[in-house]
Specification:
The chain has a domain of 59 residues. The protein is mostly helical. It has 4 helices and no strands.
Length: 116
């Protein structure tokens, strides 16, 4: 019987390390096989919250652009501009409340689903 040299020993340890590095990968659909109906409902609510949260950024920029245009033309009709600024400011408040609840829904549902 032949004794193992250092090179053979290193080769064997490298092979063992490579085998340990190989992970059993699971497909995306396989991950959802363990989810029950309650988890599916929570993930659907999270998706709705994420969509609302994602749409809110372009909506914010649309309102911001309109408000900046009104501020730029405020010297022509200050009373009308003041009324429109107040209207868009209130729209910002509504948008911020929608962002707050949609982001809360997004995070809370994923946290609750992950805890099970």
């Amino acid at each position: 019987m032949r004794a193992l040299s250092n090179q053979d020993d290193d080769k064997i340890t490298k092979e063992k390390k490579e085998e340990e590095k190989k992970l059993n990968r699971v497909s995306l659909l396989k991950l959802f096989t363990f989810a029950d109906f309650y988890d599916s409902v929570l993930m659907a609510l999270e998706s709705i919250g994420a969509i609302i949260h994602g749409v809110s950024i372009p909506v914010f920029f649309i309102y911001f652009e309109k408000m900046i245009n009104i501020i730029g033309l405020a010297y022509l009709a200050p009373k009308i501009a003041s009324h429109k600024i107040a209207k868009y400011s209130l729209d910002f408040v509504y948008l911020s409340v929608a962002i707050m609840f949609s982001s809360w829904l997004e995070v809370a549902c994923w946290m609750y689903t992950g805890e099970w």
